[in-house]
């Protein structure tokens, strides 16, 4: 999959005075991500946490030493990983520089984005055809077309891009679509009197955003969601960053999507693969767990604060994610070039 990289650059040192605002006061500098002129206070708890989850940038050489003779596969979350967390979920745009970094990494290694958003929405944000997409927390995945895999064929269908390349769309929650549409109408009716609520239709799951809901109204919002779920026993609720998620109650999450894509790529139970998963949300922990159980690969959490995680490494914010991807694609391009000349 390797092709000529576009304007590949080396990793820039990370500044401890950089930070990213995750509030409605975010602002974006020209060509980059949200920054602030205020210095970041030294947090001893964060320093201790970093000792257990060291920076993937400073640990890059040690990490990449384990990649020799293995196929790297890259998995990425979207919100908070490739784009900053913003007050309006419809405006979570990635920068052109980040798009270039993802494009370059996908030209070197198989790359997939696994998000809680709908697959179509993530594609609208990313706009890259060289990447596989998995939306609705892995419930809607488009991956490579293999003749056989161990998953239920009734939930898989063939699809072709504009150039005639074949893919497989896997939707294990397809039977829940009518119920999701019904619940979309219901949740809008139940929450329409609560100021600040934003309902996002992610096709196979629903997101109830409450970033702009007043504290005194949150209890009522949570109660309405609970009452609705009580009438739909085949669904359950989960929590994200300022969002309540409504999802079908099937055993499927981002970790299962990761396993499905690895098998579709031909790496089921393979010892010759090195998966890398980068994400910032608690739903990404399911994917981190899969990599830890496999005993191979690198789960990397994006966080500027200490938190419980199964990740082995960390990155501070999307800016550091971009630097890591740029350095990894440069390494991939250089090593592919060397291999081709041997």
Automatic annotation (TrEMBL):
Question: So what EC number does this one have?
Answer: 3.1.3.12
Query: Does the keyword Phosphoprotein belong to this entry?
Result: no
Gene Ontology process terms (BP): trehalose biosynthetic process
List the pathway annotation: Glycan biosynthesis; trehalose biosynthesis
Respond yes or no to whether keyword Hydrolase is given for this record.
yes
EC primary class: hydrolase
Q: Which residue intervals make up region (Disordered)?
A: 10-29
User: What cofactor requirement does the entry state?
Assistant: a divalent metal cation
Pfam families hit by this protein: Trehalose_PPase
Q: Which InterPro entries match?
A: HAD-like_sf, HAD-SF_hydro_IIB, HAD_sf, OTSB-like, Trehalose_PPase
Catalytic activity entry: alpha,alpha-trehalose 6-phosphate + H2O = alpha,alpha-trehalose + phosphate
One GO MF term attached to the UniProt entry: trehalose-phosphatase activity
Keywords noted in UniProt: Hydrolase, Stress response
Protein family (similarity comment): Belongs to the trehalose phosphatase family.
Q: What role does this protein play?
A: Removes the phosphate from trehalose 6-phosphate to produce free trehalose. Trehalose accumulation in plant may improve abiotic stress tolerance.
PANTHER family under this entry?
TREHALOSE 6-PHOSPHATE PHOSPHATASE
Q: What is this protein called?
A: Trehalose 6-phosphate phosphatase
